[in-house]
Amino acid sequence: MDKLMITGGSPLEGEVRISGAKNAALPILMSTVLADGPMLISNVPHLHDVTTTLELLGRLGAEMTLHEGMAVEIDPTKMDSFVAPYELVKTMRASILILGPLLAKHGRADVSLPGGCAIGSRPVDLHLNGLTAMGADIKLENGYIKARVDGRLKGARLVMNEVTVTGTENLMMAAVLAEGTTTIENAAREPEVVDLAICLNGIGAKISGAGTDTITIEGVERLTGGEHRICPDRIETGTYLVAAAITGGKIKCTHADPSLLDAVVVKLEECGADIDCGKDYITLDMKGKRPKAVSFKTAPYPAFPTDMQAQFTALNLVAEGAGMITETIFENRFMHVQEMQRMGGNIRVEGNTAFSQGVESLTAAPVMATDLRASASLVLAGLVAKGTTIVDRIYHIDRGYERIEEKLSQIGAKIKRLPD
Ligand SMILES: CC(=O)N[C@H]1[C@@H](OP(=O)(O)OP(=O)(O)OC[C@H]2O[C@@H](n3ccc(=O)[nH]c3=O)[C@H](O)[C@@H]2O)O[C@H](CO)[C@@H](O)[C@@H]1O
Ligand SMILES: C=C(OP(=O)(O)O)C(=O)O
To answer: Which amino acid positions bind phosphoenolpyruvate, per UniProt (predicted)?
Structure first.
């Protein structure tokens, strides 16, 4: 397994080009199953999860052509398999996003039930309840979700008990080809849900209200093929902004969308950063300053994202003062804290809150984490630690960050990938 070797102490300075969003690319690539012609998807990030998604689509019989500049053309018209096998689903929970499109388009889907993962149990009951309410017959057999429907799914009123991002996306994708109108109440408002709706509306779907908590989908009989450009990754952007803030540097993130980062920007300003936003860039200046500790609770968009919690936990380790960070989305998302303690962080977890008291400096250590953002937060801690930190098991990082070591090196980090 590859590792990252980071020697801390250099303030980061320069420009980073932000990639397309993982969490938009995955549902949008899955949604191509619904189309009646080829789809050209651009600004696709080069990530392990994207490769897994393309492998899944290939196994289902979709034809794919890769174009220059991270665009992929997907022709789903000759699909002849409806099974998402365990060996793919176990490496990527988001494989569940194939369920809605397959069922809506082909009337059948066998999708391995995703297990829990390092950050929590992550059930998919709300996806299944919604599809059942739309007329699907769903059984669990031998670890697989076996979903069937005779003819088209039926539009329904779906009231979600919890705000679920992939649940909203799965049901929205299922509803676009259903007979009649579906409403999703208490829907997720995340920008990636909006990007998916834009993509689907571009090929003939009738979705309104994406980005609010009530989404209405008028089912249509067919969708055409078409084109879509994936929106910028707000979590990647936030991670690089924290990298500059934690090292007392100055950074410009280009090809970004600052309008998706309001809650994160508020906290960066609170920690002392000067921020400037343009239409497609965001700069952060923290030169010569030590960050001040921040406190917040994670919650669904537009509140502070759980996917940025670990990175700010790292920032608080070296900040001036006490910080209190509460995780409300996932029950086990502080796996990074024990590793941070090994680097000299003065931090403890009680219940779902991490309490920290900033220290002047961290010390390097060999560390590893069992999820994506936790691993990224250890890289951030390594950027300010005295000495050389080795972050193990970085396949988690490769699920969600495109060429992280190259992008960080370009802005002055001393970071190297150590191949297995
Ligand atoms: C590929 C993708 O987009 N992943 C994102 C998505 O994950 P994902 O869509 O899996 O996360 P959800 O929004 O579904 O999870 C939110 C909460 O709802 C619960 N829940 C969810 C579904 C369900 O059927 N039953 C249920 O109880 C979950 O356990 C969790 O406590 O949103 C998360 C929350 O912003 C992000 O951290 C992930 O990066
Ligand atoms: C939790 C995340 O992703 P996933 O839902 O793909 O596991 C994440 O992007 O931080």
So the answer is: 22-23
State yes or no: 23 annotated in a binding site: yes
| Ligand 2 atom 7 nearest Cα | 93
Same domain, 200 and 108: yes
Give the domain range for residue 349: 3-19+232-418
Assess whether 277 carries a catalytic annotation: no
123 marked among binding-site residues: yes
Nearest to 381 by CA among 403, 348, 413: 413
The structure tokens listed for 225 are 């093929």
* Cis-peptide, bond into residue 302, ω within 30° of zero: yes
Task: Give the end of a domain, one of 191, 208, 229.
Answer: 229
Both 267 and 394 in one domain: the answer is yes
Q: Name the pTM for this structure.
A: 0.98
Indicate which ligand has the atom closest to the C-alpha of 120: 1
- Residues 323 and 304: beta-carbon distance below 8 Å: no
pLDDT in tens, 251-273: 999 999 999 999 999 999 999 99
- Indicate left, alpha or beta for 393 from its phi (over 0: left) and psi (-120 to 50: alpha): left
> Pick from 202, 229, 256: which residue ends a domain?
229
Which residue has its alpha carbon closest to ligand 2 atom 8?
A: 307
Interval 320-372: pLDDT, tens: 999 999 999 999 999 999 999 999 999 999 999 999 999 999 999 999 988 99
ipTM for the predicted complex: 0.99
As a whole number of angstroms, the distance between CA 52 and CA 95 comes to 9
Domain count of the fold of the chain:
2
